[in-house]
Design brief:
Structural class of chain A: mainly beta
Oligomer: heterodimer
Structural class of chain B: mainly beta
Strand content of chain A: over 45%
Order of helices and strands of chain A: EEEEEEEEEEE
Number of helices of chain B: 0
Number of strands of chain A: 11
Radius of gyration of chain B: 14 Å
Largest interface: A-B, 25 and 27 residues
Number of strands of chain B: 11
Strand content of chain B: over 45%
Distance between the termini of chain B: 39 Å
Distance between the termini of chain A: 36 Å
Helix content of chain B: under 10%
Number of helices of chain A: 0
């Protein structure tokens, strides 16, 4: 089974900060990596798929990069709406998905 | 508006059964595969099951294989998750989600319901 590991688990940042979250796969998943945002009490929301493709309506301050086993999600300038938990998800083994454990971005 | 609405959650004793429903609206339901994803209290997301657009193909996480069964009724725009032999580890918020964006055989979950809560306790 493919394991997904995110770092850090928690990240404290201020409005306007550049934020980077890392996701590592236990084996190569090519470019089949997605990112989801989950605000408290809400359902997850797809942000990015295929490593770097922004879902429709997602602000351009979000970007993704990587390949193989190491991937990053970057928020170029953190906004109030961005305080949330972020999950990476591999779908190289589609239709069976594996999520990372999550990274909580909170206010510094 | 694209929408998925889950129902059927509740409190059940260990070893018991529950059937969750997910009703879709705002899109051509029969064109899309549907997944169930759960989230234990204070924990992360765990993929549970997949059912193809026709209902012919299903997949399950190892943690629920043999206990959970997913099915669908395209005439009713609905997907169901039959959960048997429930244990404390199955306590979670259960989401259904549409596998809607991406390549034919590499889809992502682009529409989610708000979830239904399952609690397993004596």
């Amino acid at each position: 089974d493919i394991q997904m590991t995110q770092s850090p688990s928690t990240l404290s940042a201020s409005i306007g900060d550049r934020v980077t979250i890392t996701c590592r796969a236990s084996q190569s998943i090519g470019s089949w990596l997605a990112w989801y945002q989950q605000r408290p009490g809400k359902a997850p929301k797809l942000l990015i798929y295929r490593t770097s493709t922004l879902e429709s309506g997602v602000p351009s301050r979000f970007s993704g990069s990587g390949s193989g086993t190491e991937f990053t999600l970057t928020i170029s300038s953190l906004q109030p709406d961005d305080f949330a938990t972020y999950y990476c998800q591999q779908y190289n083994t589609y239709p069976m998905y594996t999520f990372g454990q999550g990274t909580k971005v909170d206010i510094k | 508006e694209l929408q998925l609405v889950e129902s059927g959650g509740g409190l059940v004793q260990p070893g018991g059964s529950l059937r969750l429903s997910c009703v879709a609206s705002g899109f051509t339901f029969s064109n899309y595969a549907i997944d169930w994803v759960r989230q234990a209290p204070g924990k992360g997301l765990e993929w549970v099951s997949y059912i193809s657009s026709t209902g012919i193909t299903t997949y399950y996480a190892d943690s629920v294989e043999g206990r959970f069964t997913v099915s669908r009724d395209n005439a009713m725009n609905s997907v169901y998750l039959q959960m048997n032999s429930l244990g404390a580890d199955d306590t979670a918020l259960y989401y259904c989600a549409r596998a809607g964006v991406g390549l034919v055989n590499k889809k992502n979950l682009d529409v989610w319901g708000n979830g239904t809560t399952v609690s397993v306790s004596s």
